[in-house]
Amino acid sequence: MNLNRTRTAALALIAALSLLIGLTAPSMADDKDDLNRKKKDLNSKIGDAKADADHSSKQLASARAALDKARSALASAQAELDRTRGQLAVAKARDAQMQEELDAAQSALATAVDQLEKGEADLADVEGVVEQFTVQSVQQGDSGLRAFNGLLSGESPSEFTEQMSINGSVGEAQVAKMQELEASRVVLKLKRDEVRKLRDQVKKAREEAAANLVRQRELKEQAVEQTDQVGELVSARATAKRAANKALQADLAQLQQLEDDRSRVQAQLEELARKDVGSGGAGVGGDSGGTLSRPVNGPITSPYGMRVHPVTGVYKLHDGTDFGVACGTPVRAAASGTIIQQYYNGGYGNRVILNNGVKRGKSVVTTYNHLSRFIYSVGTKVKRGQVIAYSGTTGYSTGCHLHFMVIVNGQTTNPMGWL
């Protein structure tokens, strides 16, 4: 079935029905049987239009949800890819730095090894000299005792003095060499400790560099995978966007039809207002109260005024007050009156239009929208507070609630000025 043709036909039939039945209680009573037959004939066609409209709204909501999900997933994937690329850049920069540190450590190690080898050679030389002193001392005995023995044997005192001087010089040289040997050993130990430390640094630097290279490979693989994922999500977002735009265009087209339907209904209500005010509301069955009662007990979730429509995203007048109540909540007449219209509208869903007669010298009509089901038929007179329907979420609706409208002299007005 062609969606636009079905909607147009259904709306035309609804308008035709409204024109046929009229808007005053006496004419509806006269033609009640005939109108009921015509209404029965229209039920299936209106039902088809309702199903198409429901499908359209749900399709738009679903498409937009898919688009939002694709956008969110793409943003997350892109952020993750950016983080991975950032980590990879840091890892590459760190690799160059670590290579410089490794080169410096290896150079320092090579220098330390050369110094260690030189120190070991110097130590060997000093140890050789000390060892020679020791051997000579053992072989020659005590040089001082030998000089003293020569003096006793008749050598001149000058020779004794010279010999003792030589012995003193040799002893000082031996002491100096021994001190040099000890110092060389201390220095050599420090050099060996430094070589061990530098070798540990080189080993650690190599291990860190190797681990960093492994990390780079992992990040590169992640970046490739994430780039592919981003590409897929870009494609998914484009597909979701096309679907959402298609559904939006379909709903906007339907919305235009609904606006046209509302204009026709408003014209009828303006005519009704003229008749009601002229007749004083005779035959409507309204009450004398100058105010209206709340149709449901629930919080106001969206007041009367300009807003962005939650389904279509269009900035337009919200022509009633939304009460947040669960689906299936009894909806009560805000004042006594006659049900003049009751049908499905793609925007308002199941709606009841109740003529409440003249109040404060003005024609007052109340409408109850997005209903789950009706109770009475067109032409029924109801009392203030009487249950006339049950709340729902039909038509352009994002959740269970009651959209309550007050129409004064054929024009919408803020319901809160009458409650």
Question: What does the secondary structure layout of this molecule look like, with pairings?
Answer:
Layout: H1 3-21, H2 25-30, H3 32-140, H4 143-152, H5 157-279, E1 300-302, E2 305-308, E3 315-318, E4 321-323, E5 330-332, E6 337-345, E7 349-359, E8 362-374, E9 381-382, E10 387-391, E11 402-408, E12 411-413
Antiparallel strand pairs: 1-4, 2-3, 4-11, 5-10, 6-7, 6-9, 7-8, 8-10, 8-11, 11-12
Report on the architecture of this protein:
With 419 residues, the chain is of the alpha+beta class. It has 2 domains: 3-55 and 258-417, Glucose Permease (Domain IIA), CATH 2.70.70; 79-231, Helix Hairpins. Helix content is 64%, strand content 16%. It has helices at 3-21, 25-30, 32-140, 143-152, 157-279; strands spanning 300-302, 305-308, 315-318, 321-323, 330-332, 337-345, 349-359, 362-374, 381-382, 387-391, 402-408, 411-413. Strands 1, 4, 5, 6, 7, 8, 9, 10, 11 and 12 form a 10-stranded antiparallel beta sheet that branches. A hairpin with a 3-residue loop joins strand 6 (337-345) and strand 7. Helix 1 crosses helix 3 (32-140), helix 3 runs antiparallel to helix 5 and helix 4 packs antiparallel against helix 5. The radius of gyration is 52 Å and the shape is rod-shaped. 25% of the residues are buried.
